[in-house]
Amino acid sequence: NKKFPGKKPLVLSSEQRKNIVNLQKEVMRQVPGTREYEVAAAQALKAIQDVIPAGLGKKIAAYRNIAMLLNAKTIGRNITANGIYGGVDKGITDYVAAGLDKLVSLKTGVRTRTAPQWLEWARGFKKGLKEGAEDVRLGINTRKIGDKYDLQPGRTFDSKIGQSLEKALNYSLQVPDRAFYEATFQESLKNQMRASGKDKITDEMIRIAEQEARESVFQNDGVLSKSILGLRRGLNWLGHLGREVKPGTLGLGDLLMPFAQVPANLTQQAINYSPLGLIKGGMSLSRGLQRQGTKDLARGIVGTGGMLGSAALAKSGLITGDLNDEDLSTLQNMERRNNLAQLGKRPFQINGMAYNMFSPLSTVVAAGAKLGQGGSARQVGEAVLGSIIDMPFLSGINRAMSNYQRQGLGAAAAGMISDVPSQFVPTFANQVADVIDPTAKETYDPNIFKQGINKAVNKIPGLRGILPDKASVTGEKIRKYDNEGLGLLYNAMINPTFNNKQKSHPVIEELERLYQQSGQGNQYLPVVKRKITYTDSQGNKIKRVLSTDEFNDYQKFVGQRNVFALDRLFQDPGYWRLTPEEQVQEVTRLQQKVDELTKAELF
C-alpha cells in the first residue's frame, strides 16, 4: 500500500489470511531443498502476489506477448534453435573443451571437465519438462529464471480466456526452455563431480552449473545484456518524463524494445563462437578459471572452423551472407538486395533456406559467408549483427537500423513508433491473412500514425485487401511465399524458417553481371524515393512527399518501364560492342529518362 499512495488500500480478507498462513505451514512441513519444498514456497508466495491486482500496463504487455508469440512458427523456432545450439555446444564443443582441459591439467594438475554426461543430460531434460509443465499449471516459477522472450510467470488476467491463452504461451515457450536449462544444469553438476573425483556437490559447483544453464537458454547477465536492459529502462524513464516507472506500468522502452535481452545474449554467443572466443579463453585461463577458459577456447575453435567451412560454401554459391558490399552506398546495397530478391536470392540463405532463424550459431555461417566474399573484419561483425536482428521477432530493430542508415535518426524513431500498433494484432492472424492472400501490401504513409494503422491492418484477414499491392523493383506484385495449397499453408503457419525458389529474370541477371564486371552499383532497378523533386510546366522546382498510392504507382510504373526499355536495349547488338563501363552508362542514362518521363506523367 505504501508503494501506491493515493489508491484505495488493499485489505486482506479473513479467508485470504487463513490461506496464506496454511500455505506457510505447508512450507514448514517440507524438507528444504526438495521439489516439494520449492513448490510449496512458490505457491505461498503466489498467494501473496495474487492479492495485488495486475496493473493495466502488465495486462497490456501480457496481451502483446500473446499476440506476437503464440503461433506455431515461433514455437517451432524456439525449440529448433535451442536444439541446434544445444547439439553443437554440447555435442561438439564440449568434447573439444574436455580435450583442452586434459591438456591444461598437465600443467595445473587439476581436471575440471570431462566428456558430456549424456545420460544425466537426458534425465535433466525429462525433469525440466515435468517440472516446467507443473510450474505453468500452478502459475509459479521454482527455478527463478525467465525465458528469452521476457515472459513472466503467474496469473495476469481475470478472465478464463485470458488465463488459458497465457498458459498456452507459457507451456509452449517456457517449458522447452526449462527443459534445456535443467538438462544443462544436471549434466554440469555430474560433469564437475566426475572430473574432480568428489562425491559431494559443492556450492561452487552449483554456482557454475547455474551459470552454464542460464547460458544455454540465453538468460546470462553479461555486460551486453545489462547494457541493453539499461537502455530499455532509460527509454521507460524518458517516456515518463523523468518520473519513476511504477511496477505494472508499460513504458516507452517496453513498447519500442519488447525483447531486450535476446539480441544482447545472442550477440555475446556470436562473439564466443568466433576468433574472439580464443582471446576470451586465454584471459579466463590466465585468471585461473580452467573450466570456463577451456569452454571459451573450444567455442572459439569450433566457431572459427565453422566460419572457414562456411566461407568455402559461400565461394561455391551455396550460402549467402548479408549481401552488402563495402564499395556500394547504403541505398545501392538496398537496391541490389531488392534486385537479387527477384531471382530468389536473399540474405542469409543456405540453398534457398533462411538460416538466420537459428541464432546464435547462424552467426557463424553469416560471418563465414562474409569472409568468403572477401569482407573485412568490420564487415564480418556487421554481417553477424545483421543475421541476429534479421530474425522475425527483432524485425522492428532491423527496420529501425535500416531507416537510420538511409534517412537518419528521425526516420528510425518514426518507424519504431509506427510498428507499435501492429504488435497488438496476433501474429497468428497475420499468418492466416498470408494464406488467404500471400501478396505483400504497401503500408507506407507520410503520416506516421496512418502508417502505424496500415501496418496493423496488414495483419488482419479480410482488411488487408484494402491496402494496395506492394510493387517490386520490376513493377510486379510481390508474393511472400512461392507455394500454393498445402505448401502455402505449411510455409505460412508452421515452417520455422523461410524457403525461396531460384528464379530467372534476364534483365536483373544482366544488371548483376554488369556489377560483377564493372564494380559499379548505380545500374540496378531503382527503389523510388518517397520525397521527390521535379520541374513543373512553368519550369519551377517542386518538392513533395508522396502519398501511399502515388508512391506505389511511381514504383510500379518505373519498374515496369525500366524492364521493358532495358530488355529492348539488351537485344541491341550495339550494346554488346560496348565495354562494361560504357554499358553501365547506357543503362543509367536510360533509367534516368524513364524516371523523368514517369514523373512528368504522374505528377
Which descriptors apply to this entry?
globular; two-stranded antiparallel sheet; mainly alpha; 603 residues; 23 helices; single chain
Structural class: mainly alpha
What is the total tally of β strands?
Answer: 4
Largest sheet: 2 strands, antiparallel
Give the uncertain stretches in residue-range form.
none
What spatial form do the alpha-carbon principal axes imply?
A: globular
Order of helices and strands: HHHHHHHHHHHHHEEHHHHHHHHEEHH
Task: List the total number of helices.
Answer: 23
Intertermini distance: 63 Å
Give the strand order, joined by hyphens, for the main sheet.
Answer: 1-2
> How helix-rich are the residues, as a percent range?
55-70%
Q: Mean pLDDT across all residues, rounded?
A: 86
